[in-house]
């Protein structure tokens, strides 16, 4: 049941979209089709991801107030009440960003799965009005074979992941002489996402195929651009 829904709602539409793009792109360059499909999906998800980034940015702006609440010596119950009032006053939901990310995960994973499973249009999953591309060129821009492992693309995938983590809005840091488990865990996760996860991404990208690496590069660079835009927008609001 779940598998059927997954194929009908996510995997099959994305695979058909990829087949269509390959058929209309001059020379049938699959690499270019991968980039275009990834951008299309990211544009569709843009409102959700934008809200998520803005929500995190709003939390960052409230960090000084959160620091004051935690250091005022009040009981935990009083701190919780004051924190809730602060969120209510600024119309901020600390969990909205997480919810929006969770909504995006199945779609992003389905797109990843299209490339992970192998770009094969011969398995009967194409719609009747989508034809198997007459030409399929796996040599991206006539330079790199994305059907095989690519060290160059894998390294670029790792670099793009580092940039994505670098520009990602940092969660608010609540100062405390005795940081809570949550604060310590958040700091540890941020460090891993910034310095360790890029190596994991590069390793996975190299282990599978150049298509996966190309997907990761495109997705990460799109997010970098989106995050830079949110930071500039946030800065312009502060200046005003």
Descriptive tags:
240 residues, mainly alpha, 10 helices, 2 strands
| Shape field | elongated
| % residues in beta strands | under 5%
Number of strands: 2
Structural class: mainly alpha
User: Please, how many domains?
Assistant: 1
Number of helices: 10
Write out the strand line-up for the largest beta sheet, numbering strands in chain order: 1-2
Radius of gyration: 21 Å
Helix content: over 70%
Let me know the largest β-sheet: 2 strands, antiparallel
Order of helices and strands: HHHHHHEEHHHH
Mean pLDDT: 78
Q: What ranges have pLDDT less than 50 throughout 5 or more consecutive residues?
A: none
Distance between the termini: 53 Å
Care to describe what's here?
The protein has 240 residues and is an all-alpha fold. The protein has one domain. It is 71% helix and 2% strand. The chain is built from 10 helices and 2 strands; from the N terminus they run ααααααββαααα. It has helices at 2-24, 30-44, 46-61, 63-70, 76-89, 96-116, 151-167, 181-195, 197-208, 210-239; strands spanning 139-140, 144-145. Helix 1 crosses helix 2 and helix 3 crosses helix 6. The radius of gyration is 21 Å and the shape is elongated. The protein starts with a helix and ends with a helix.
């Amino acid at each position: 049941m779940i598998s059927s829904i997954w194929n009908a709602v996510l995997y099959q539409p994305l695979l058909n979209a990829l087949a269509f793009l390959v058929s209309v792109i001059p020379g049938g360059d699959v690499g270019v089709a991968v980039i275009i499909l990834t951008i299309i999906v990211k544009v569709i998800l843009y409102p959700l991801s934008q809200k998520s980034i803005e929500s995190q940015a709003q939390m960052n702006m409230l960090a000084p107030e959160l620091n004051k609440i935690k250091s005022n010596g009040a009981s935990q119950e009083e701190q919780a009440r004051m924190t809730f009032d602060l969120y209510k006053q600024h119309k901020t939901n600390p969990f909205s960003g997480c919810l929006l990310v969770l909504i995006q995960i199945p779609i992003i994973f389905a797109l990843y799965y299209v490339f992970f499973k192998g770009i094969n249009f011969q398995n009967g999953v194409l719609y009747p009005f989508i034809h198997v591309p007459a030409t399929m060129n796996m040599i991206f821009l006539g330079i790199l074979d994305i059907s095989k492992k690519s060290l160059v693309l894998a390294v670029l995938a790792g670099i793009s992941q580092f940039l994505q983590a670098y520009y990602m809005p940092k969660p608010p840091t609540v100062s405390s002489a005795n940081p809570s488990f949550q604060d310590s865990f958040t700091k540890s996760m941020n460090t891993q996402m910034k310095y360790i996860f890029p190596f994991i991404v590069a390793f996975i990208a190299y282990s599978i195929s150049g298509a996966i690496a190309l997907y990761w590069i495109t997705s990460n660079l799109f997010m970098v651009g989106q995050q830079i835009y949110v930071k500039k927008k946030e800065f312009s609001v502060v200046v005003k």
